[in-house]
Specification:
InterPro entries: HotDog_dom_sf (IPR029069), MaoC-like_dom (IPR002539), MCH/BMMD (IPR052342). It comes from Sphingopyxis italica. With about 150 residues, the chain is α+β, with helices and mostly antiparallel strands. It has a single domain (about 5-145), classed as Hotdog Thioesterase (Thiol Ester Dehydrase, Chain A, Roll). The chain contains four helices and six strands; from the N terminus they run ββααααββββ.
Length: about 150
């Protein structure tokens, strides 16, 4: 189990995640299709060529999922009970096919669960960065985490 238990986190702790992923046009088309998102800005190259970007934008929900996904191995794999929600999610820079995305996580808050004594709540700030070190995604994620077994 690679994930950490609640007690193993500390406020201010930073994880620079090793896993990186170069995103592809097929990722964008497949994800948009699987989620029934027909927005031309994601799947229509001819249309996207007429926009200010000149090419399709990666679906932002794909970007969010990827950024959170690459954080799991170092933080919550096998020790999370549930995601409690994401907030303050922003996409400051666009993502395009061919960009390589990596993630950085900072623990911003720890609190005991009032209703579950064997668990605690961790608030993570996840940053997605591209190959130019530009922030392309930021979110706060609340996770219900296991405490260490007694």
């Amino acid at each position: 189990m690679a994930g950490l238990y609640f007690e193993q986190f500390s406020v201010g702790q930073v994880f620079d995640h090793e896993i990186r992923r170069t995103v592809t046009d097929m990722d964008n088309i497949l994800f948009s299709s699987l989620t029934y998102n027909p927005a031309a800005i994601h799947i229509d190259h001819a249309y996207a060529a007429t926009t200010e970007f000149g090419k399709p934008l990666m679906n932002s929900i794909f970007t969010l999922g990827l950024v959170i996904g690459v954080t799991v191995q170092d933080t919550t794999l096998g020790t999370t009970i549930a995601n409690l929600g994401m907030s303050e999610t922003t996409f400051p820079k666009p993502v395009f096919a061919g960009d390589t995305i990596r993630a950085r996580t900072t623990v911003v808050e720890l609190r005991d669960s009032k209703s579950r004594p064997t668990q605690g709540i961790v608030t993570f700030e996840h940053l997605g960065l591209n190959q130019k070190d530009e922030i392309v995604c930021r979110t706060l994620r609340g996770a219900l985490m296991m405490r260490s077994p007694a």
